[in-house]
Write a structure and sequence with these properties.
Structural class: mainly alpha
CATH class of the largest domain: Mainly Alpha
Number of strands: 0
Order of helices and strands: HHHHHH
Radius of gyration: 17 Å
Distance between the termini: 35 Å
Oligomer: single chain
Largest sheet: none
């Protein structure tokens, strides 16, 4: 896995957990003593946090730091899963969307 992908995956997990906790970016940034812009860059995968910041984020969000590195695990939050599906469809042409729609129809109509 490339460094950029890892940073993006890390950031997505931080953002997802922050939103699950119903915390605003500024609230988390204030608690971990960083600028809001810096947290935004981390969540977008543009910056990689220091070890100390990872620990502070974990404490602030009440999770184990290991949670931020669970890239390969399957998400169980329906909202996260739906967002993943939407990201997969973003930028697709009409034919690709039509095929995806047919596949989903087949998948759900057969159960």
């Amino acid at each position: 896995m490339g460094a950029n992908k890892a940073a993006a995956d890390f950031g997505r997990l931080v953002r997802s957990i922050r939103k699950e906790r119903k915390l605003k970016t500024w609230q988390v940034a204030e608690r971990v003593n960083i600028e809001v812009k810096h947290l935004g860059r981390i969540e977008r995968g543009e910056k990689r946090p220091s070890f100390e910041l990872i620990i502070a984020l974990a404490e602030t969000l009440s999770v184990s730091p290991a949670v931020f590195f669970a890239f390969e695990s399957t998400p169980t939050d329906p909202k996260v899963l739906k967002n993943h599906i939407v990201r997969q469809l973003r930028g697709r042409d009409v034919m690709q969307l039509h095929r995806a729609s047919k596949l989903l129809t087949l998948l759900f109509d057969s159960t």
